[in-house]
Design goal:
This protein is α/β, with parallel strands linked by helices. The protein has helices at residues 2-25, 46-59, 80-92, 105-118, 148-161, 175-190, 209-217, 230-241, 258-264, 266-269, 284-296, 305-324, 331-340, 389-392, and strands at residues 28-35, 68-75, 98-101, 121-124, 141-143, 166-172, 194-201, 222-226, 250-253, 273-276, 343-345, 349-353, 359-360, 363-368, 381-387. The strands form four sheets. Strands 2-1-3-4-5 form a five-stranded parallel sheet, sandwiched between helices. Helix 4 (105-118) links the parallel strand 3 (98-101) and strand 4 (121-124). Helix 3 (80-92) runs parallel beside helix 4 (105-118), helix 5 (148-161) runs parallel beside helix 6 (175-190) and helix 12 packs across helix 13 (331-340). The two termini are 39 Å apart. 52% of the residues are buried.
Length: 406
């Protein structure tokens, strides 16, 4: 009996040793950058996110240690079914280990479920829905960069405090727009303001005239743009043509990227307030990264906060794999280890990943400069205020993430 027990123990030890050795030998990582490569969010994520992933791999130090890292890209076309099909093929057939970026909350939430089912790793920096770390949180997902809670409290809260106490929403008609309007409405109501109306518009529409005329007729002090990318730039341009701001109403660009400001030009965008977590010209480290990034981009654009989030999330992921000694291909365990390690990268600085998968770091309320204030290309932002990391995102006590109820 004792001999059998000893044999069993030796067998278990041998199996564990072999498993550890196998993981140590597995130093191959495949990254899938899933984005909008050709439509309204292409400048926000797109090719820039693929480049950011490649730069993170190059900067990780793992290649010099014998790791093989491959980055592939896909175009989800802002359709959850297409994004879901790409994710399934990547995970089932192409042996992708981690999916990054994924702007468009509808696609992001679909991919979130698939990655959990396949026990891979999901580092989202492109989608805004705060549901990714609340009601639909997953042990396999880390949400980096920004979310609708942050945008609502940063921009919405600041504008209400400044006297913008009546709001009318122009909202993109899908998961992101709904979440952003919901979270901003909560802030407006809590701050003593009120929402007087709103209208939903199709994703990637070109004509905002009827929606803007309704907003103008509402007499609301603030017209809240709960949209992003090309939809935001088109609505701002057309609002300028209608003389809405000149007439006394203020536009709230609830989600604005530096690529949007560049597309609009400072003559149109000047004075807009918005919240971001990254600006290329913030310090020496962000400037150094941005210079390398811009030199490799075909259009020479500066990185958006989504690009920065792809880079920073993968930097932390690679540090985690290095500490683990290999790629276990157990997504939930890798994410658990990521959460146990403090984050520290050149773009966002020091931070942490909360138990619900929310990466926290400071956020910043910016204002777009006047043309006379800009010193050169891409010099677009001036800092209004800093929101500390522990105040920028949903407090854990308020999170509806099921992972917190264990």
């Amino acid at each position: 009996m004792r001999a059998k027990l000893m044999a069993g123990l030796l067998s278990t030890v041998a199996a564990l040793t072999m498993a550890g050795a196998a993981m140590a030998d597995d130093k191959v990582v495949k990254i899938g950058a899933l984005s909008d490569q050709s439509s309204l969010y292409a400048d926000v994520g797109g090719p820039g996110s693929t480049l950011a992933a490649q730069m993170a791999a190059e900067d990780s130090g793992l290649i010099a240690k014998g790791w093989k890292i491959e980055v592939i890209s896909g175009d989800h076309q802002n359709k959850p079914d297409i994004g879901g099909n790409i994710a399934r093929q990547w995970l089932d057939i192409d042996k992708v280990d981690v999916i990054v970026d994924v702007p468009n909350s509808g696609v992001a939430l679909a991919v979130n479920n698939i990655v959990k089912e396949k026990n891979a790793v999901y580092l989202n920096s492109g989608a805004a829905s705060s549901d990714l770390t609340n009601a639909q949180c997953s042990p396999n997902t880390v949400h980096w960069t920004y979310d609708t809670y942050m945008l609502a409290h940063g921009t919405g809260g600041a504008l209400v405090k400044a006297g913008g106490d009546t709001w009318y929403f122009l909202t993109a008609d899908y998961a992101f727009g709904a979440a952003l309007e919901r979270d901003t409405t909560a802030v407006i109501n809590a701050s003593g303001g009120r929402v007087v109306g709103g209208v939903k518009h199709p994703l990637n529409t070109s004509d905002f005239s009827s929606f803007l005329l309704q907003a103008q007729a509402s007499k609301a002090k603030i017209i809240g743009l709960a949209n992003a990318g090309g939809d935001t730039t088109n609505s701002i341009k057309q609002a300028s043509e209608f003389g809405i701001v000149a007439g006394g109403q203020k536009l709230a660009a609830l989600l604005l990227f530096i690529s949007d400001v560049h597309a609009l030009g400072l003559n149109v965008a000047q004075g807009l307030n918005f919240t971001e977590t990254f600006y290329w010209d913030a310090n020496d480290q962000t400037r150094a990264f941005a210079k390398r990034f811009s030199e490799r981009m075909k259009n020479k654009q500066m990185p958006t906060m989504v690009h920065a989030g792809v880079y920073a999330a993968l930097v932390h992921y690679f540090k985690t794999l290095d500490q683990m000694g290999g790629n276990s291909r157990d997504g939930a365990k890798i994410v658990e280890k990521m959460k146990s390690m403090p984050t520290d990268d050149p773009l966002f600085g020091k931070g942490e990943i909360q138990p619900n998968g929310r990466a926290i770091h400071p956020a910043y309320l910016f204002e777009v400069k006047k043309p006379s204030e800009s010193k050169g290309p891409w010099d677009y932002y001036k800092l209004v205020s800093t929101i500390p990391a522990d105040q920028a995102f949903t407090p854990l006590a308020d999170s509806k993430c099921p992972l917190l109820k264990k």
